[in-house]
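Structure tokens please, single chain.
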Amino acid sequence: MHLYFRGVYQLEPGEKTKERFERSWPAYQDWFLREGEGKRPGYVSCRQALQRYMPELVPTWEKLVDLAGGGDQEARLLSLYRPTPYLSGCSQAVWTRERPLLARNYDYHPNHCEGLILYSAWNGTRVIAQSDSLWGVLDGINEHGLVASLAFGGRKVVGDGFGIPLVLRYILELCRDVESGVEALERIPSHMAYNVTLLDGSGRFANVHVGPDRPAQVANSPVATNHQREIEWTRHAEATHSLERERYLLDRLDDDAESREAFVDRFLDKPLYNTRFKEGFGTLYTAVYDPVARTATYRWPNHSWTQSFERFDESELLIQYPT
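Here you go.
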């Protein structure tokens, strides 16, 4: 199993975006229609939801729809309003001593990850992010030093709201600090349960538990895995070792002898690093975001790739995963 990771520099949606959409559309269309087209909201509902909750993104959405051919399904999918449910397993934590950083593992199936590291400035703010759902964000950093990262929240509930990758896109495009990011998460509904970790250059951080059935809750913990305040989906938590990973990270953060470098290296070892790729829970990459230096470093057992706003690499990297 393998995955190509590509760095793409495109400040405004354009030909690179169009080419990527044409390449990715068949797989995304299958995902969009998995439960039947009638399960997905209509065009008018999607537009109204975007205009109500994220009006600043509507012009970009319209550009992307045009680049995608202007079709009904394309517009509805790109709104990411009440999308097809999906699960992932992730570990993320904020290092608060000395110079802050956010480190995270993204655990998913290699066949369903874009592997796109996108440098954009669609609304005037420069953003470097791991792309998902064609314009959403799995994790990323903006030019102000605000970092955002998502993890599945370990609850079965699905309801009214947006796919969380689009909410993270909104945060990195429009917010400058943790406080404004939290405000966005409290206001914009998420269609599933997720844990969103935020960090800014001042060292402030927040873990926000979101879901469609209750208000967003801000947790004081610097760690997020795949449950919220308590275990609600026992089978999923046990299968992903969510509690074990959370306790491990908290212990490392509480250890006065732990260094910043050693802490980052932990993400490439058990119990954080996962090799269950065929099951859809393998660690596809480790991301390390430095909000002071404004850098993003992506790590694998035998590779490391650092990106910054001043020096962005548009090459590609082939990562092989064990089968």
